[in-house]
Amino acid sequence: MSKCIFTVGSSRIQNNWIKSKLSLIGVFVLVLLGTTSCTQDFEDINTNPNAPVNVQPNLLLRQVIYDYGEQMSYEGFTAGNLLGQYTTALDFNLFDRHNLKSPQLGGNPWPIFYQNLRDNELILNLSLENPSFRVYEGPARIMKAYMAAALTDLFGDVPYSEAFRGNQGPVTPVYDAQEDIYMGENGIFDNLTKGIAAIQSYDGNIALEGDILFNGDLQGWVRFANSLRIKYLMRVSSKMDVSAELQSIYNADTFIKENGQNAIFNFTDGEPNNFRLARLRIGDFNNFVMSETMEEILVDLDDARISRLFRPFANSETGDEYNGLLNGIDASSTTVTLADYSLAGTIFRENTGLLDTNFMTSMETYFLLAEAAQRGLISADAQNLYEIGVTQAFDYWQVDLPSDYLSGTGAMENGDPLENIITQKWIANMINGYEGWVEYRRTGFPQLKTISASLNDDLIPVRMPYPAEEEALNNQNYTTAANNTDGNSINVNVWWDQE
User: Fold this and answer.
1) How far apart are CA 155 and CA 207, in angstroms?
2) Which of 174, 248, 283, 322 registers the highest number of CB atoms within 10 A of its CB?
3) CA-CA-CA-CA torsion sign (249, 253, 256, 259)
4) Tell me: the pLDDT tens digits for 296-337?
5) Beta strand residue intervals within 256-410, DSSP E
6) What does the DSSP 8-state code read for residue 205?
7) Each residue of 191-247: pLDDT tens digit?
8) What span, in angstroms and rounded, lies between the C-alpha atoms of 257 and 361?
9) Considering the domain 57-266+362-469 in this protein, what is its CATH number?
10) Euclidean distance between the first and final Cα of the chain, in Å?
């Protein structure tokens, strides 16, 4: 027998698969890749007869949707909610004090993005290479646009054009400019357009499987893509004229219009598919309480959703009072009593079967359209769009809308109409805490507070810092990106936020 010297290893994408929640789909996929200098028998030696050679796109699609949604819902609550000032942290709160380079209970979404964007790229490649998988092209392009937008909106310039390729691409990908990620070929808008076109031109009879957002309904994906187009056009509206395209989408009337069409999947009350906050030890859960920002907004509005999103504080004399804490306390020098502040509502821990992971909704779509109408970017009735958004937001959170809310405290004209539109969108998106922070950066609403003991010179951050592993593993490209952000500063605006 000839000697055969070879090495076998797994790529970063396969490592991340091992860490993912494959219990949801009931299958483990491990693809071993290797290099060799042997003269014979290599294929026989390196083939596992008990493991599938090819990855199926339906399993990947299910995995990408679930893993990204589950992990980012947790990230959005533990870290995004601190940046967006929905909640504040009593301890382990360097992140809440805006030392964003020190993630603790959350605050490191980078690997979540790249793990799932790599897996999604496998789906896209399979759909382009194999005619029998063509039905997956549209959803894969739409998911790529969605996740890429969330990534670049947090960090700014990021690896994109050379990323997501696994062993087929460079191990040190360049950082693409955010403008190119949005506007370039195979960028966010291009993938949404191509994704819709791929769905509309699909004439095969193979069903889309593994789709836990729309159960294989391709028109659901088209509505999702159009709502995302509205969202991202508004996001870049300070950089270019988006009126004509927004008006065209609005007139076509093919976007998410009711809660039954939302891009969501439901959590359960029990493991393994409940909201991860329910699995934290009680001390970690009790670390997050209502922020003073959230308290003031909900109390001023006399908003009935307060009892869904939070609990009365334990020391309340009447049993139905709510109290928030200013973000960013110095836990080493400030003593607080948990019983004096409102914890997150039972929907986030005991009753997570009432909660879902939220990719895009009708309420967010209508608030974006209301803003567009109020700003004169589309010809439409801003107040009507706003009131539909509020109505659907109350329904989304399973709270009855008081009959006088839209004519009283919640009226669009009760103060600054634009601020009211954005604030209502902020309230409704509590499960997507990063979104509240991103939209605050774009619009300045709602008016967030200077935090108690800032570690960032009393400035509210306007981007996430690149993680330390990028400096170690992709140093040359990281250095260029860091130099473009004043040393990886969290106070340098991303492209669409620059004047």
Assistant:
1) 36
2) 322
3) positive
4) 999 999 999 999 999 999 999 999 999 999 999 998 888 899
5) 263-266, 288-290, 356-360
6) -
7) 999 999 999 999 999 999 999 999 999 999 999 999 999 999 999 999 999 999 999
8) 8
9) 1.25.40.390
10) 70
CA distances from 181 to 17, 112, 237, 345 (A): 26, 18, 16, 37
CB 11, CB 167: distance < 8 Å = yes
Question: What are the domain boundaries of the chain?
Answer: 6-45, 57-266+362-469, 280-347
* Amino acid code (one letter) for 436: G
Model pTM score:
0.89
Q: How confident is the model over 380-431, as pLDDT tens digits?
A: 999 999 999 999 999 999 999 999 999 999 999 999 999 999 999 999 999 8
Residue among 307, 341, 346 nearest 327 (CA): 341
Strand 288-290 vs strand 87-89: parallel, antiparallel, or unpaired?
antiparallel
Q: Is the pLDDT of residue 189 over 90?
A: yes
Using the structure block, give the residue that is written with the tokens 């950066």.
441
- Is residue 440 within a helix (H) or strand (E), and if so which, with residue range? helix 433-443
Q: How far apart are CA 242 and CA 234, in angstroms?
A: 8
> Helix, strand, coil proportions of the chain in percent (round to 5)?
50, 5, 45
Burial (0-12, 13-18, 19+ Cβ within 10 Å), 316: middle
Whether residue 1 contacts residue 42, with contact meaning beta carbons closer than 8 Å, is answered with no
